[in-house]
Design a protein that fits this description.
single chain, 4-stranded parallel β-sheet
């Protein structure tokens, strides 16, 4: 069993590389001080990037949430900004289940001003648009990137920073990461430096909500 006040993290990218899969959990542990346990969805080698992969991930979320709770998770985070299967996962377990996309959008909204969304799909996820409403001023996809696995290159990282600059120039006063692969690359710092704007990382946003739900004081 895991330690008390453990947060479960569901990765939507299938991999047997646990150093990679547990990267988001490590971010949360360092930021908020609770323990994490990670699971990944099966048969999603490139994560969630279109309607088909979203629907497939949504179907798998309840089982993943139940598995993490069985391991001792007191809260669960869906590590995907599209929040696939969020309502189904919440219905499947009796602990808080937090979607990274809606959590990130809520914090971006609370910061005031206009929000620019950086993601990997031309259409901004409903999990984000339903929260931001008319505060969403623009969205961008890094050039050459259509799947989260394509962010894990030097070219993908450069393209993400360039896209963030475009969002600033389009009137954004806050940048919201609507792809959790940007967390894996630790791009919040480079984007802040390049744009001069605050950056909301969806994984850290969800982690903050989990800390509050579990009454854990952030470090």
């Amino acid at each position: 069993m895991t330690a008390p006040r453990t947060v479960g993290v569901i990765r939507v990218v299938t991999s047997d590389d646990w150093q990679f899969l547990e990267a988001h959990g490590r971010v949360l542990e360092q930021a908020y001080g609770y323990g994490t346990v990670t699971a990944c969805l099966p048969d999603q080698p490139h994560g969630v990037y279109d309607d088909r992969t979203f629907a497939a991930a949504a179907q798998k979320m309840p089982a993943a949430a139940r598995a993490l709770v069985a391991e001792g998770a007191a809260a669960v985070i869906l590590s995907c900004a599209a929040d696939p299967g969020l309502a189904w996962a919440r219905a499947a377990v009796e602990v808080p289940v937090i979607g990274a996309g809606s959590a990130g959008a809520a914090i971006a909204l609370a910061m005031g001003g206009a929000v620019g969304v950086l993601g990997i799909t031309e259409e901004v996820p409903e999990s984000v648009t339903s929260v931001l409403g008319d505060r969403l001023v623009a969205s961008r996809v890094p050039a050459g990137v259509r799947r989260t696995t394509e962010l894990t290159t030097a070219a993908g990282a450069r393209a993400a920073v360039e896209a963030a600059i475009e969002l600033r120039d389009a009137g954004a006063t806050t940048i919201l990461f609507a792809c959790t692969g940007l967390t894996t690359l630790n791009l919040a710092g480079p984007v802040r430096a390049a744009t001069g704007l605050p950056v909301v990382d969806a994984i850290r946003a969800a982690g903050l909500v989990a800390a509050d739900a579990l009454d854990v004081r952030p470090l």
